[in-house]
């Protein structure tokens, strides 16, 4: 007998006392909780997102479509970035013509090469207001998971209000489980020293979020 | 790492040593009190917390009651998404599988995400024996590994260390493992985090094999979820060419939607955050993004034995948040090492004796490592009635009886050390059934009270070693009542 059969056999013997559930799963497990906490207009939801992002030390900016390239260039300049990493499908209008050297991400770029890039600019798939969370799903405007991880400075553009949801349940409804997902809530942090939160460990130590709308 | 839990003394001896260590008690008190207040605030933000807790309990219970079905579904989904599923009945088999997978890559080092399952099976030691070096990359795990120490908390394994101790460990040990700590390293948490960032960076960038656990596995989609803070998890999950995840079979949930419950309750219960900084979700492999090979090792190692116990099986609902540790008055004073297991605190006191059985001295003593105050049950986000299981396991230790070990039914013998307790209970039963004898005994005890020793002799010594004997009153209550009618007649 192989271990698969052994383990499944042990499970079945262990559950000899259990009457199998015949109802569909969603009936068998009632969900007496809220889809979202509180009633908010679309604008208020964006405000809550901004507030919660800032609470976990992300730096939040707002811009209209016309202002975006200038803002991105200013943030890159303020960070002193000489090179900026760009996912393959970043909307062309998000960056100005001048500014730091653009490194277009491709599979051949090694992790060591990515480590020498100062900043990265990406979009996102969805943002969650209640928790101050950005979710990236590897779409062309976001790129591979590693590009929003290795550079020390991440600029993430959120289209508001379209990409913003109130809650975790609403975010999961929008996301595709088949894609590789990264949920980001503030810059990297740790609570490992005396259970106190300190920002800045292995992921980007500076997270800037631009609410575009 | 030299740290091992084999041959640990029973809880009272280990705890007795810990409570006499003022640094340890200070560190634990500071950390647990900090997190307690923060957790209350984070939980208080959600008006439907009770509903989320109940849904979490029901999802986990339902899954456990149909675990065979969901494991088969998970295997199918992971395989369809490009992963390879392995089954490990025990720690030895899991270690053999992982060692073989690493060897097949030709690599001699791996980077690791913090994982309770791999701590439980002592994977690092098994890899070291095979000539493979495993680098822990979680900050607290790194502190434990560099300090040749043992973990003492589920979430923050180095909770017993304060910033000064961490600075000393980094300054002394980092050079042995790779890039040394910066000159003049201070003990500010930001500097310590920076030292860890620099030390581990080169390891992440060259890593070819990553090893992780998982917080959740979704049967419906084959998705694995790792919840973390630092980004070391993201590094290990996305940069290597090969990813091996070792996950306990109880970590499966049926549907994608189920994550909406646990992604709300886990961060708020563990680090007291609305959301932890990073959560990674992956389903098999993705072209040109992340590892090209993904192996999932499903681990039993005592979980099916635990499942066979109709009272104790609820311990398998645990999502390893560690809220029960942070509120426990016993944990706060004794520290995590006294529990003699990678699972300390209240959840460890019910999990370890079930996963490992109650035959060793430490495992037989763990169900007693509690005052049954119930704070752990209150904060548990999946409503595990820890006091109920503790009492159940105490009964098993004292009375023995049927249990399942390694899939086989066994009949446990009553524990030897509890003969005196059983004799005392028999005597009590006899006396309480005979009021005359009870009265004579109580009066005798009152009259001789000045002669009573401070500790019990013989087999009672163990009991009074950690407790003060109750003072015997000058007269038995019933005599006092007879004499005074409860004080109504003006006495005193």
Describe the structure.
- The complex is a heterodimer of chains A (213) and B (492).
- Chain A is of the alpha/beta class.
- Chain A has one domain: Rossmann fold (3-Layer(aba) Sandwich).
- Helix content of chain A is 25%, strand content 25%.
- Chain A has helices spanning 3-14, 25-28, 42-55, 68-79, 111-114, 168-174, and strands at residues 59-63, 83-86, 101-104, 119-122, 126-128, 133-136, 153-159, 164-165, 181-184, 189-193, 196-199, 206-212.
- The radius of gyration of chain A is 21 Å and the shape is globular.
- The model of chain A has no long low-confidence stretch (mean pLDDT 95).
- Chain B has a domain at 419-484.
- Chain B has 492 residues and is of the alpha/beta class.
- The longest helix of chain B is centred in the N-terminal third of the chain and has 23 residues, at 22-44.
- In chain B, α3 crosses α12 (259-270) and α16 packs across α19 (386-399).
- Helices cover 49% and strands 12% of the residues of chain B.
- The radius of gyration of chain B is 26 Å and the shape is globular.
- Chain B is built from 23 helices and 12 strands.
- The chains are: A alpha/beta (213), B alpha/beta (492).
- Chains A and B meet through α1, α6, β9, β10 and β11 of A and α2, α3, α4, α8 and α10 of B.
- β9 of chain A pairs antiparallel with β9 of chain B, so a sheet runs across the interface.
Quaternary state, please? heterodimer
Taking the sheet with the most strands of chain B, its summary is: 6 strands, parallel
Order of helices and strands of chain A: HHHEHEEHEEEEEHEEEE
The total of helices of chain B stands at 23
Record the strand order, biggest sheet of chain B: 1-10-7-4-2-3
Q: What is the CATH class name of chain A? A: Alpha Beta
Termini separation of chain A:
61 Å
């Amino acid at each position: 007998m192989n271990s698969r059969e052994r383990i499944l056999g042990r499970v079945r013997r262990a559950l000899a006392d259990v009457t199998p559930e015949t109802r569909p799963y969603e009936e068998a497990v009632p969900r007496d909780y809220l889809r979202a906490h509180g009633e908010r207009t679309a604008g208020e939801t964006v405000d809550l997102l901004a507030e919660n992002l800032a609470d976990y030390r992300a730096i939040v900016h707002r811009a209209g479509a016309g202002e975006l390239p200038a803002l991105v260039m200013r943030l890159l300049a303020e960070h002193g970035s000489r090179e900026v990493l760009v996912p393959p499908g970043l909307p062309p209008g998000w960056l100005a013509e001048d500014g730091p050297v653009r490194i277009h991400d491709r599979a051949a770029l090694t992790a060591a090469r990515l480590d020498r890039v100062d900043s990265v600019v990406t979009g996102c798939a969805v943002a969650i207001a209640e928790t101050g969370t950005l979710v990236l799903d590897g779409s062309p405007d976001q790129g591979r998971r590693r590009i929003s991880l290795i550079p020390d400075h991440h600029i993430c553009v959120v289209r508001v209000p379209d990409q913003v949801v109130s809650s975790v349940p609403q975010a999961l409804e929008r996301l595709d489980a088949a894609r590789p997902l990264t949920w980001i809530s503030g810059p990297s942090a740790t609570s490992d020293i005396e259970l106190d939160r300190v920002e800045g460990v292995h992921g980007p130590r500076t997270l800037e979020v631009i609410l575009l709308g | 790492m030299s740290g091992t839990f084999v041959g640990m003394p029973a809880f009272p001896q280990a705890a007795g040593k810990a409570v006499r260590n003022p640094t340890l008690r200070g560190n634990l008190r500071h950390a647990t009190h900090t997190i307690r207040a923060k957790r209350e605030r984070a939980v208080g933000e959600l008006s439907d917390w009770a509903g989320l807790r109940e849904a979490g309990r029901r999802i986990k219970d339902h899954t456990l009651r149909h675990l065979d079905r969901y494991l088969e579904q998970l295997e199918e989904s992971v395989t369809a998404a490009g992963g390879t599923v392995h089954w490990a009945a025990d720690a030895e088999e899991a270690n053999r599988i992982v060692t073989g997978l690493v060897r097949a890559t030709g690599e001699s080092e791996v980077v690791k995400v913090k994982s309770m399952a791999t701590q439980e099976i002592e994977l690092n030691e098994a890899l070291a024996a095979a000539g493979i070096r495993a680098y822990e990359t979680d900050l607290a795990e790194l502190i434990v590994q560099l300090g040749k120490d043992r973990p003492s908390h589920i979430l923050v394994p180095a909770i017993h260390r304060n910033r000064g101790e961490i600075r000393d460990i980094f300054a002394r040990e980092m050079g042995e493992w790779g890039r040394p700590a910066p000159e003049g390293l201070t003990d500010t948490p930001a500097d310590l985090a920076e030292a860890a960032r620099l030390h581990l960076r080169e390891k992440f960038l060259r890593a070819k094999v990553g090893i992780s656990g998982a917080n959740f596995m979704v049967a419906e989609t084959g998705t694995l979820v790792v919840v973390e803070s630092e980004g070391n998890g993201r590094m290990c999950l996305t940069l290597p060419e090969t990813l091996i995840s070792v996950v306990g079979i109880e970590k499966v949930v049926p549907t994608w939607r189920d994550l909406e419950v646990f992604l709300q309750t886990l961060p708020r219960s563990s680090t007291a955050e609305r959301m932890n900084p990073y959560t990674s979700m992956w389903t098999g492999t993705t072209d040109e993004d992340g590892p090209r090979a993904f192996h999932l090792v499903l681990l039993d190692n005592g979980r099916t034995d635990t499942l066979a116990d109709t009272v104790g099986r609820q311990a398998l609902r645990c999502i390893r948040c560690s809220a029960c540790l942070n509120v426990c008055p016993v944990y706060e004073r004794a520290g995590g090492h006294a529990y003699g297991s990678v699972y300390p605190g209240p959840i460890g006191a019910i999990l370890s004796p079930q996963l490992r059985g109650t035959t060793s001295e430490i495992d037989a003593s763990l169900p007693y490592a509690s005052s049954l105050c119930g704070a752990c049950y209150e904060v548990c986000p999946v409503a595990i009635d820890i006091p109920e299981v503790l009492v159940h396991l105490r009964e098993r230790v004292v009375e023995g009886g049927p249990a399942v070990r390694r899939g086989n039914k066994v009949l446990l013998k009553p524990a030897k050390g509890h003969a005196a307790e059983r004799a005392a209970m028999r005597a009590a039963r006899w006396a309480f059934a005979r009021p005359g004898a009870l009265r004579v005994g109580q009066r005798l005890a009152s009259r001789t009270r000045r002669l009573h020793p401070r500790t019990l002799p013989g087999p009672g010594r163990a009991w009074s070693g950690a407790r003060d004997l109750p003072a015997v009153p000058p007269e038995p209550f019933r005599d006092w009542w007879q004499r005074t009618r409860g004080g109504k007649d003006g006495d005193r």
